[in-house]
## 1
Amino acid sequence: MARKTIVAGNWKMNMTPSQAVKLCEELKDLVKSDTVDVVYCVPAIDIIPVVEAVKGTNVKVGAENMYYEEKGAYTGEISAEMLKDAGVEYVIIGHSERRDYFKECDCMLNKKVKKAFEAGLTPILCCGESLEQREMNVTMDWIRLQIKSDLVGVTADQVKSMVIAYEPIWAIGTGKTATTEQAQEVCKGIRDCIAEMYDAATAEAVRIQYGGSVNASNAAELFGQPDIDGGLVGGASLKADFGKIVNF
Ligand code: PEP
């Protein structure tokens, strides 16, 4: 079965609740699509107003992070169950900014992935290499390590339903996009890794996005690659251009 393209916006730490509602209104007609799944991954405080603002549209709401514990004394954290109850369907796990600035390790991300599934959320699991790693020719070794560690104990059926985002760190927010060949090569490498860990059917089903300076002019070529099933989009998801990316 053909995989459905999925384009998700990562708003990062942008948009106050009132700005968020305004943006949803501005993008509403531009992001309409029958063929592409559209997700807005928004800051925690924007979740409730955004869920309300996109009601009746084709847009689904995602969170940018979550904690793996059920509840209790974890000041400042938000649980998977809280997200689910608020109307969230997707959650970004392991974005490079969280791995880097907040020191989230693969062991923690593995717990988050499993907890997200338990709560009925779809993880968008991020992976990607630094420029130094690319230059040392260890890109695929590094990414395979991330994928294998983050998916310990995750079943084939769960993997079939999830999303993996390949985001080279050097391409995020830099305006420097990976070449189509580089992006396709790594996304295929991730699919091969899933086939080795699970089976061919699981590898065939899992959706793999590319992320890193996706914009209205490079989306079509990137998303047209055989192993790239859409994108995780930062900067350009906050502008009307996001509509062009969805309808690439
Ligand atoms: C991201 O935040 O995941 C991202 C890819 O950002 P940008 O599109 O701005 O590079």
## 2
Amino acid sequence: MSFSSLGLSAPLINAVQERAYSEPTPVQSAAIPAILAGRDVLASAQTGSGKTAAFCLPLLQTLTIKPRGARGETRAVQILILVPTRELATQVGETLRILGQHLPQPVKLAVLFGGISINPQMMHLRGGADIVIATPGRLLDLVSHNALQLSSVRSLVLDEADRLLELGFADELSRVLSMLPLQRQNLFFSATFSPQVDALATSMLHDPVQIAIATTAESAPDIVQRAIVVDARQRTQLLRHLISTEKWSRVLVFVATKYAADLISTKLRRADINAEAFHGEQSQGKRSQVLSDFKASRLKVVIATDVAARGIDVSQLPVVVNYDLPRSSDDYTHRIGRTGRAGESGLAISFICADSANEAHFRLIEQRHQLRVAREQIPGFEPAFEAAASTAGMAVAVSDPNGGIKGKRPSKKDKLRALAAKSE
Ligand code: AMP
């Protein structure tokens, strides 16, 4: 299958060729004709599968841009793309800029997100915009400042739709939706859809073309998954050890909290490892700097919260480490999907803390993904706790039927007994 057989125009085909995309990915082959035909789309396809171009290319083609000369005329927003993070907004904007560069009329894009001054964004919106890519909060701010209005939006995209439909965004999203015309095209894209989100999405979409690109052996991202059992307090040392012995050129490390991201990156810098934190409490300037340094390989290690888990495309990122396990199996998919993108191979390592309920939690992730990852131990980092606890058979963890994890962790007394049993 070729891009031209999908009905795309010559300027877009040129742009695709310049990017050296030889043929459409499965999600592109399915979504591009449907979007060009004006249909609603609900698409789930794995991370790194070319979803962004799958909606950007046909939407660029459907734009109607008046030739220059219509001076002083305000451009009405025709396409609105909502994304959950600032970095994803920038990335989608960049893809649109590159793919739209040969169109006969220049496309005016507005990339809008919080964490930076609103004034330049208001200035940029003078005269309107053809396509707006935004995080919901800043979009609402700008609407309330009368900097733009959304009554002429023809196509709405929710990128990483399941995240946008989650509780944290639900209120902002429904306010944005109430400002849009009822007659419009709706395009929902994500790597993961929970059943609840699926139901909600289906109720919002009109007779959608449903695209679910099954993960087959050939199409599955080529990601080797490993799990290393280690004591919690040994993890930073182990990370340092792996960075040096496995000679990773770059690694993205996920942790559970902003505090941990700051702490671990500081410890690594003290050990002369080029590392930075990346989380939602940093200034936007800092976040952009860290990401661009990482993308350009000026930075070796980024310690991030889940704000970096979705959509971010760092090409040729060889390794992702789950220093703390993700909360859900969907988050696991998004995190490890930062490596092994666009046909490259990747490695995802999860630390399983022997002295916690991690083992049961990871088993649940494995069950949901129908996989089994061998547990490893690294010489010099063998978990003292596990050895002690398993000797006495005391570590008990059970999964609860509602999806959470209940851990029955041994008490201090239990641990002492176990140690005593071991030394006997
Ligand atoms: P995405 O899933 O949209 O984040 O895309 C992941 C990566 O795949 C990006 O680096 C894209 O530039 C790349 N990509 C998108 N479409 C194609 C294609 N048809 N052929 C090769 N690479 C592609």
